[in-house]
Specification:
four-stranded antiparallel β-sheet, Immunoglobulin-like, single chain, 6 helices, 2 domains
């Protein structure tokens, strides 16, 4: 599937405040970036590696007090949609290092607080069937409510309020999976069916020796999702970070089929 991505960002900043962005699609075996262009007015750019060496992030050093940026990309996604309930989970001692790192609790995914619930609700299932049941539970029990959460909201908060956005859905699924001993990582990216159009987040689960995208919001599928970055949670891959205050003047994310 070919995705066409266009992002426009206009933010008012503290004068000279550097901005760290994670907005560019990362090349991988399952997604090819045929063309990608970042344009920033009146600023210097410094590129760095993303978390775990996956993808890139960029420091934008503005000459004034405004971030004016555009990003466009054409991405070919060749990711296969796996039948998750046919996949198995590996015991902890058999996990590779890249998966083991995503089995532990993190700031926004305190999986150690969900052990009893996960065992009670999903303990009768295994592997991919368990992940599907978790995905369905999150999708069925949460209400998608923009503004219901903020940058400090954890999976435990979301479990209590039963409201949130894609970030919160992904955090809760990751916390459930880790509590069950299945590695899960947070993934940021783009997808054409996201409503309202914006940066999107889902989870990636380690099953049968590989990572598999799972979206508890139901707004994207593995073959229609262009990954930007991965991490333990949103704190690792926030699309934008600043030291001072940043006020959005205009932001638009457009994703379509090529």
């Amino acid at each position: 599937m070919t995705l066409l991505i266009d992002v426009t960002m206009d933010y008012a900043l503290q004068p000279g405040d550097p901005v760290l962005l994670a907005i560019t699609v990362m090349p991988s075996a399952t997604q090819t970036v045929e063309q990608g262009t970042v344009t920033v007015d009146w600023a210097n750019l410094h590129w760095i590696e993303g978390t775990g060496g996956l993808g890139q992030r960029v420091w934008v050093i503005p000459n004034g007090a405004r971030l004016l940026l555009s990003y466009s990309a054409r991405v070919i996604v060749t990711r296969v949609v796996a039948k998750l309930d046919d996949l198995s989970a590996q015991p902890m001692h058999a996990l590779p290092a890249e998966a083991l790192a995503y089995l532990r609790p993190s700031v926004f995914c305190p999986s150690d607080r969900f052990g009893i619930f996960v065992q009670t609700e999903f303990g009768h299932l295994a592997g991919g069937a368990k992940i599907l049941a978790m995905r369905d539970w999150v999708g069925r029990n949460l209400s998608y409510v923009p503004g219901a959460s903020n940058a400090g909201t954890t999976a435990l908060d979301t479990f209590v309020t039963r409201q949130g956005v894609c970030r919160d859905y992904a955090h809760l699924l990751c916390a459930f999976a880790r509590a069950a001993g299945i590695p899960a990582r947070y993934v940021s990216g783009y997808s054409p069916c996201v409503t309202p159009p914006d940066f999107h987040a889902c989870a990636e689960i380690w099953l049968d020796g590989g990572w598999h995208l799972v979206d508890p919001t139901g707004m994207s599928t593995p073959d229609s999702f262009a990954m930007i970055a991965v991490g333990q949670d949103a704190g690792d891959v926030a699309f934008m970070e600043t030291a001072g205050m940043a006020n959005v003047m205009w932001q638009e994310v457009r994703v379509g089929w090529g």
